[in-house]
Amino acid sequence: MSLWKDFNQGIVKENPVLRLMIGLCPVLAVSNTTMNALGMSAAVAFVLIGSNLVVALIRKVTPDEIRIPIFIIIISTFVTIIDYVMQAYAPVLYQALGVFVPLIVVNCIILGRAEAFAYKNPIFNSVLDGVGMSIGFTLALGSIAVIREILGAGAVLGIQLYDPAIAATIMILPPGAFITIGCIMAFLNKMENKVM
Length: 196
Prior knowledge:
Order of helices and strands: HHHHHHHEEH
Strand content: under 5%
Helix content: 55-70%
Structural class: mainly alpha
Strand order of the largest sheet: 1-2
Largest sheet: 2 strands, antiparallel
């Protein structure tokens, strides 16, 4: 039961974006297209799962006094790897995501999970937590991006759904990100209140 809880909590109950409201900077910045959202989600998942794994591996030999700098070194190592891989194999996506890939180092989701979970739990639980949080992040970012892209460009993943001349262009601009995340959170809160 504990393993399921470790996996599931990041998807719904403690969704990093829609419930905990952390990691919003890249979410709001790169969710103007679904492709950007999927690319950022993959990068965050790689860093989150990898850093949770390593932090859990070394948790018993990491002194409390210097744990945060150690976590940051671990996280920055994974960010550097994904940064170079994206630059080499997905240069268009890398260009579109811009500075937000290197900024994963300071993403609250990554450091928060290392501190709050991976440092206190065994390896398998920490990896499951990283996978669950990654799925939750991907679902949130993907939902926001799909809504914004359909309403703001009349397309999704390059497939034109309707005439872009009648699209609400504001939805692919920064205010559209705030509008979309606000509407999704209001919907989730309403659904949660109905269940209770």
